[in-house]
Write a structure and sequence with these properties.
Elements lengths: L5 H20 L4 E4 L17 H14 L7 E4 L4 E4 L1 H10 L3 E7 L4 H13 L6 H14 L14 H13 L3 H11 L2 H8 L9
Parallel strand pairs: 2-4
Antiparallel strand pairs: 1-4, 2-3
Helix pairs in contact: 2-3, 5-7, 6-7
Length: about 200
């Protein structure tokens, strides 16, 4: 058997890329070497990995391998995991070498972050610490600059609270209270450690 040269590897890489692109167009998951999967903030910090869920996924993967119907969601332009950190951690512990992924294109981090948050809003019961963190991140990504004058009778802070609440699926009151908590290091720390709720802080 002859040696595989650089030219052959280039042809293979091009063919693999074409296969991946066609699969993406059909909305199908593709397989990626786990060593090529990257994690990064703020996405990896959005939600904690719950041990009981991780253990369940590990046991399932040991029996059945990874499930193609549950791919990791990847930011195409940066190769970073947006959603699927628990499944990735499970695959790494089991020793799986390739995992199913689905790539998504975003122009900026704000859009990618909103996608990651939206994916989770109907799939988990958020802790108050997770809500606090999500609201803070969205507020950080809001455009900065000269504030526009609110219409007569309107409140600009209230309006932005409505927008943020819709994005992550919480009440406007929760957003307003989370912003108030964020101004107090003591209360913010208490919410993050689970000692207080957003409404009780």
């Amino acid at each position: 058997m002859g040696k595989t040269g650089i030219k052959d590897l280039g042809v293979k890489a091009k063919r693999d890329q074409e296969i991946h692109e066609k699969a993406q167009l059909r909305g199908e998951a593709i397989w990626e070497d786990i060593e090529n999967i990257k994690i990064a903030s703020p996405f990896m910090d959005l939600f904690s990995v719950k041990e009981e869920i991780l253990d369940g996924i590990i046991e399932n993967m040991k029996l059945n391998g990874d499930d193609r119907s549950k791919p990791l969601d990847i930011w195409a332009e940066r190769g970073v995991v947006l959603d699927g950190h628990t499944r990735l951690a499970a695959a790494q512990q089991v020793g799986i070498l390739t995992v199913p992924i689905h790539k998504h294109s975003f122009e900026n981090q704000a859009d990618a972050l909103l996608y990651a948050l939206y994916n989770q809003r109907n799939r988990r019961n958020w802790t108050d610490a997770e809500k606090q963190k999500a609201i803070g991140l969205i507020d950080e990504l809001r455009p900065r600059g000269r504030k526009k004058k609110a219409p007569s009778g309107a409140n600009s802070q209230g309006k932005s609270a409505v927008v943020t609440a819709r994005k992550i699926g919480v009440s406007t009151r929760t957003v307003e209270r989370a912003r108030a908590v964020a101004k107090s290091p003591r209360h913010r720390r208490a919410v993050q450690t689970g000692q207080q709720t957003i409404s009780g802080a």
